[in-house]
Every structure is written in C-alpha cells, then in structure tokens.
C-alpha cells in the first residue's frame, strides 16, 4: 500500500526557460528588512505524562504567491502561505504539538502528481513519527500531528519539508521556517526580543515570467543569483548602537556562504547548530554551509549614527550577467534610544554554555565507523548505498545500528572529487573531533548537527545516540544530492526487523483533513 506514496526520481527543470531580464531584477539595498511572523499557539495544556506545559500549533502548507521581486508575483509553497514560514519559539521543557495540514495541490503544475510532504524539525527528534522520515509522507487533503519534546538546551532549529525525492523542490519553493528553544542560561547571556534576530538566508533565480527557476545542473546543485534575507532580496535593516544577536540559518538548497562584514570587524560566533559554544569565537570571515546555523553577535556601538555596514559573502560567481551574490544585507546605524541597563546591550560574555557533547571522549566510543561520500554512475552515494537501498529493504536495512545511549565516532570521508557536502545526522548532536587530522575550526567548536565536508576532507565526529530508539536518516543537505539519492539510515536501540511502536512506517498515519 505505502509504496504508491514514493514518487519516482524526477526533476522539474527549467533549463529551456529564459531568465528574468536584469532590468527587472531587484536592486540591492532598496528593500526593507523583515522578521518572519512568530506563531501563537491556538491552545495550551498540560502533558498528563510528565506534567509539563504543552503548546498546540496549527500550520497549513499552502500554494500561493509572494512579491519577492517588486512588482512581480512569484508562485511559492509556504507554511501558512509565507516564506520563511512562521517561527515557533518555546522554552526548554514546554512540549509542542504541531498539526501540519497539507493543503497543497493534488496535481503538481509540472509533474502532475500530488505534492506529498514530510515535515522535519531539523535539530530535534519528533514523536511518534521520529522526525520527518522522508518516506513517511502526507498527501494533500491530509494532516498529521508532530510531537516535539523540546527537552534540549537552547538552540536555533528549523523545520522544512523532507518529502522523499522532492525535498529540494519543496524546500526551494518555500517550505522552510525557524524554530527556537530558549533556556535560562541563554536568556541571561545573550540579547533577547527585538535584539535577537532570526535570519534565514537563501538564494533563488527567476524565470522571465517571474516564477522561480529550478535547474539543479544534473543533480549537482542549484545556485541562485538573488540572495534573500528572510525572503527579501538584499534588505536594509536599521539598528541601534548596541550589541545584536543574529540566528543565521542558511536555508539555501545548495549554496554555502563565506560571511564577513564590509568594515572588517569581527562576527562574534556564540552558537553552532545545536546550541551555545563553550566560549565566543570572533571571526573576520567564516564558511557557512546550507542547513547549518551559526549565531553571532555584532557590536553596533562602535559605529556612528548614519554609518552603513554590509554583511557580505565571498562569492564564487557563476557566469551570469547580474551578479550581486557578494552582498547579503545592509545595516544602517541609528541614534534611536534603547535600555542601556540591559547587560546584553554592551557586554559580550566570556563564557557561554557547557554542553555535554563537548565532553565526550574518544575512550567512550564503542566503535569508529567510516562513511564514504561519493558519486557513482551519476548518482550520489554514501558508502555505495542510497535511499533506494532502504526502500528496497522495506525500510529495514540500516548502515549502522548503535544501541540506545551508545557513544560512537563516525569518520566521514569525501571521495567525490571537486564537491563539498554538508552531511547531516538526524537525532543527535555531535562534536567535531578532527578535520583532516587537525582540530576543527575554532568557530565550529560547539555542538553541531551538520558538518561541512570539503573537497577531499576527512572529518571525525563523536556523538551519543540518546533520547529515542528508532530509525533515523543521515544524508547530504545539498538537497539535489539528497534527492538523488545521497541518504541512508541508522537504527538506534532496535534489532533488525524489530519495530517499535513509534516506527515511522507503522505509527500514526496521516488523517483525512478536509475534502
Ligand atoms: Cu534539515 Cu534530514 O534535514
Ligand atoms: Cu552532497
């Protein structure tokens, strides 16, 4: 029965379409910066199991249009009809139940097939469907509840579509949003409220008719020529003369960035994917792969009112006639007042958080596994395998099988030639033990869930497989690579053939929503 839900490998290619004329392209630094809406729970309750508060949310996946380029309506898929979707924010320990309603077209405009989705909370696990298992899809007209325990330390997560073989197109079309967990340590140390800025950066390219162009260059990747900050091309943000915190998510489907400030002043990195680092790391420039999150502080008190500072990217431009991919957004310093008694306004903490994963020692590891990142016969593989092998085994075959609470070292080796791959491991936080036999970059010295595996690099990470049994994915987060078909799974705390009640394939199925 379920097999009918797994679409064939397919591509919506717009190679033959012409690009939007450069005279109609958005001009950098003309548009106003916006922050995506925060989602309010429609109901609050108490979990009868552990007595913890529960916030209930409703999100609807919709096909709509959005004015990204001034004067042009671009078709998008959006959570609640917006891109980025609404941000969900909770305190650690407050559970969230998100009812995800798929109200997307039953006929994809190009493929003619229904747009099936699976929602992954990247950076956590959800119950009982694990966390957006790719093949556990919901069809248009159905809905499903995702349960997020939020037991983890403060961090910037995000939710995005993970529908099997269509993740790249669905996320590129707009199904991506931020998700925040706060905790008391983070609240005491870092800017909050209007000085705590969610910042989702992505790229896009446009066809002459204003719709987004999807060309993944034979599944190599998509590099757009327009850079969006929270869905707005190259915006301008007014800032007060104090310290701001930016939660930067790169939600591009393939592009990595090298961020730096036009002034040469440092970005002070305070958090990696899975939360606060042991101590801040100032950098002039750093490399930020798609799906990674870095939080950094910028101290605007060192500038005069009226001064303009540009967040830049060291771009690797393709052969296009309208190239501003070296720019991201602009800050303009104002003399507007702010509460100077707020200790986070002027002080950069010297010590941040002491995350458990940073203390895992090599001697605790039960096994070191080697994962090869490679390309064979035009398909991307992980140690010679792909999601096709998982499907062929009726979702039983797993590349690794750690026990619950086991510590392991995984060594990821890039044998794919001139490509980099952001490799994401579901369920766990890891610590990068080494990069090519040397220590990780200082700015990566924090809890992570994605690693940038550069050309010919070999990375060792250590992690504990805690919290949940089950089957979880490991994949490349260059999404055209993931879809074709660079994704496999590991099994935690279960024997081969053993199902637990939370198994994604046997657990809660989507339910009929509205006709
Ligand atoms: Cu952000 Cu498996 O994904
Ligand atoms: Cu890849």
UniProtKB/TrEMBL annotation:
Chain ranges of the Plastocyanin-like domain: 64-184, 403-493
Pfam family, one: Cu-oxidase_2
Gene3D superfamilies in the cross-refs: Cupredoxins - blue copper proteins
SUPFAM superfamilies registered for this protein in UniProt: Cupredoxins
Stored InterPro entries: Cu-oxidase-like_N (IPR011707), Cu-oxidase_C (IPR011706), Cu-oxidase_fam (IPR045087), Cupredoxin (IPR008972), TAT_signal (IPR006311)
GO MF terms held by the record: copper ion binding; oxidoreductase activity
Protein family: Belongs to the multicopper oxidase family.
Protein name: Multicopper oxidase domain-containing protein
